[in-house]
Sequence to fold (302 residues):
Amino acid sequence: TQHHETSSRSAFIAIVGKPNVGKSSLMNAMLGQKVAIVSPKPQTTRTRIMGVLTKGETQLVFIDTPGMHKPRTRLGDYMVRSVSEAVSGVDACMLVVEPEGELTESEHSLIQSFQKSGLPVVLAINKIDLLEDRSAILARIAQLNGLYPFASVVPVSAVKGDGISILIDELSAFAQEGPHFFDDDALTDMPEKALAGEIIREKLLRLLNHEIPHGIAVSVERMREREEGGITDIDAVIYCERESHKGIVIGKKGAMLKKVATLARKDMENFFGCKVNLQCWVKVKEDWRNREGLLRSFGYDS
Ligand code: GDP
Ligand code: K
Ligand code: MG
Fold:
């Protein structure tokens, strides 16, 4: 029998860092597609999301984690646990930090956990577009290099796209010989229904006031392509914690819900590559964040 020499390689990479540092934005920038939702609010990313990037023989599987924070609810607790689960068993970590300022306590404890595990870590200094004086990057690199023997340090901007291909190259160095775990054209492990729900949640996070979005969950009840093809019907329920929140989500004469649904539909059409007919309903489910059964029905497996 003939022996086929395979050179396919893959690496699992956990993306970690404090909330809002740009973890999801960086993963999306590397994938060239918005897979993880992004917003200026902490706790935007609730579950572990895998992003898949295949370039030639190398497949990188990114695990985008929720930021570290002190859990106050069962959902928060789940989010923190999914960070530590994501880090175990990966080939390397990518730690994302701000371009300036003191490191937080949670960042220091992450570095300590690297020290214990001896995990290779690529440090991404994100948001360098915000620096007025680019030469400040050198001092930042020197400061951070003193804290851990990082495999490499890459200054990047997820928003401007600076340094992204260097980052991909650095991370590719950790790929091990072996099969690809996903199809070469896959972008994520997230089921399409969950992705559609996340797109709606992102619009809500962007358009609504501070207090409400964390009390919101989206459940996509139906997603079906019509027989004649070309159009996909998507039915989604937006759950909020209070009757008063429901009014805000719907808005005056339904204006807010319409805006959310229009923006979400455009993103879905772009992502799924077909026309979408999106229907959204708003329901009240009090205190859903603390009820495990409901958490599971929203897709947060714990
Ligand atoms: P995460 O919580 O770490 O996943 O952070 P996100 O990816 O959700 O980003 C948080 C906020 O930072 C969003 O408003 C992003 O648009 C913004 N952001 C992310 N990367 C950059 C960057 O390179 N430059 C600037 N100026 N903003 C960024
Ligand atoms: K965020
Ligand atoms: Mg995120």
Notes: The longest strand covers residues 231-240.
